[in-house]
Amino acid sequence: MKLLFVEDDSATIEAFQTALGDWNDDHKDGFEIQSETKKSCGEAVAYLEGVDSAGLTGMIVDLTLEDGEDIGNVLLQKLDDMHRRIPVVVFTATPAALQFPYLLAKYKKGEKRYEDIFELFVAVEQIGLTKILGCNGSIETMLQHVFNVAILPRVDSWCLYANSDGFDKAEKALSRSVVEHLHIAMDKDEPFAPDEFYISNLEDLDYVKSGEVLRYKNGDSPNQYVVVISPACDLALHGDPCKPKSDVVQVCELEPVAALFKSVGGCISKRIAKESKKAGDNSETLQEKVDAAIRSFHNQVLANQYAAYYHYFPAAVGFEGFIMNFRHLKTHSHVEVATAYDKTGYIVSPNFFRDIQSRFAAYYGRQGQPVICEI
Question: Which terminus of the chain, N or C, has fewer Cβ atoms within 10 Å?
Fold first, then answer.
């Protein structure tokens, strides 16, 4: 690991180097840390622009440096402008002066040990973040494969498209194609992490998107969240000025899965107890049957096999576990949506939302006959 420490106070630099030496003495078998120290924004930028910064896995930055108070903000913005995807911890006596929002963490001096910061960088390194987004990991390898196998053989076709539709459109289309190739290359038969269920909404638009997670502004609502279930074609912007094709938005409520587990689990327990009483089971056998039945029920819910109108949403990105109830639908105008809901900043990943819409359509497209009374 390699850290850049940006600090101008000599005593603080000495304390950092002492802590780093102790850390390396304790981690000779792995996760030793190399460091570079710069005292000004100018020195740090020059270092980042040079070849010596290759392999940098993190930065610890003070806001007040030799070339000015709060100039650490300027350094952080320059880092972002350089497209250097390096995790940054701001460690400063004046955290209130921080203006740059995209950080690994921020701490006030004296409230955190350097060892704790080192451990945070180690955790980031272990999940492969700096490799993946720092152009050294699996994405970079796959990009090279996509470049060689999927793009280069079709360059002539892309050039023809650019000449007919414009270079800006061609660049965007090529970017989409590369992303799709990456997606297919990485879509292996492996379990997904819960955080993959939700993706961050990178565009702060006035209109909502299909699959977007919204929160009721009225905090007294029993179910705080809904998901936009309208198909993407209804919400696509068109015309001048750009407006969605449909003038209404359909949303579906999310219910806390814990509440479902509690209510249905209680019914299961009562049913098993009644059946066990008839069978003459002892208390130990009864408890085993109840536990097994509740486990089976939980597994069915998580696998979307319990009911055709339920779909499970995992706990992730600060959300608790939810159940989408297809029976709890609401339709609003776009103005009503903006009035009644706040955006959470998250959208259900298309990988999962396609399945939700398929199950939703199947549920409302089902055919069944009325109950026929027996004679």
Answer: C
Q: Return the structure tokens found at 341.
A: 């809901």
Phi and psi angles of residue 230, each rounded to the nearest 5 degrees, phi first: -60, 140
Report the distance separating Cα 63 and Cα 243, nearest Å.
43
Give every CB contact of residue 235 below 8 A, 6+ residues apart in sequence. Answer: 207, 208, 209, 210, 228, 244, 245, 246, 249
Calpha distance 17→11 (Å, rounded): 10
**Which position has the token pair 């460690």?**
91
DSSP state of 185: H
Euclidean distance between CA atoms 265 and 298, whole angstroms: 9
Question: pLDDT digit of tens for each residue in the chain (375 aa)?
Answer: 899 999 999 999 999 999 999 999 998 878 899 999 999 999 999 999 998 888 888 999 999 999 888 999 999 999 988 888 888 999 999 999 999 998 999 999 989 999 999 999 888 887 776 666 665 557 777 777 887 788 878 877 887 888 888 888 888 888 888 888 888 877 776 788 899 999 998 877 788 999 999 999 876 665 689 999 999 999 988 877 778 888 999 999 999 999 999 988 889 888 888 888 777 778 788 888 888 999 999 999 999 999 999 999 999 988 999 999 999 999 999 999 999 999 999 999 988 999 999 999 999 988 777 778 776
User: Residue 195 phi/psi, 5° resolution?
Assistant: -65, -20
375 to 30, 243, 330, 368, 369: CA distances (angstroms): 79, 57, 40, 21, 17
